[in-house]
Amino acid sequence: MSNLFDLTGKTAVAIGGNSVLGSAMVKGLADQGAQVAVVGRNLETAEEVVQDIIAKGGKAKAFQADVISKESLKNVAKEIEAWSGGWDILLNAPGTNSPTPFFEIEEDEWDHILDVNLKGIMLTTQVFAERMIEQERKGSIINISSVSSTTPLSRVFTYSVSKAGVNNMTQFLAREFAPHGIRVNAIIPGFFPAEQNRKILSEERIASIMGHTPMDRFGKPEELAGTAVWLASDEASGFVTGTLIRVDGGFGAMTI
User: Fold this and answer.
1) CATH of the domain at 70
2) Confidence check: pLDDT of 3 > 90
3) Which domain holds residue 179?
4) What is the pTM of this model?
């Protein structure tokens, strides 16, 4: 069964692979044999992820790019191609958030969150998927969404809107890229201790989250790795595309 998840010989590009959740998924891909290009705006944190992978015998390299700049993404794509020759897996895991009340949201904040969370994935996919198609490399694109993408959570209006867009984009691109053998899916994480949600986790909100999570706990970042590996593997999920896969402890199944 382990051969189903073997990623040996494949290259993964992880945008936002230096974040808490992104790095957990990146390490999971590397554990299964993929060489990984860890791309982040902060090169120092990307290097830390790379060193962790190398220490375990994996192959990885850190790269710096700004996800909302197409020119920056084109440049880093050239650098990655020079390093690896191309890529088979694209993990889109950029993210930013804000708890600003609706009537206090300024246009600059709205634009920034939509740019990073939605426009960034669009630009990244334009750059990296186009090259996959040119090289006739079949593969997998994995977008990171959120439980707030389906039923929006309180206090994160702009974030919820952006993640709903990610879901729609995922399904559109799954149809668009299927003739090229490129699968596009999204992971919908539940509540994980990521940096962008810590600032809104008051004791009252934590109690509310636990009351709506049947497993009665937060997720652990490494619990996303298996889903990412499964979606990345052609043998394990070669006919899976256009799906939105929940890893949320049952949050999406909870009613009264």
Assistant:
1) 3.40.50.720
2) no
3) 2-247
4) 0.95
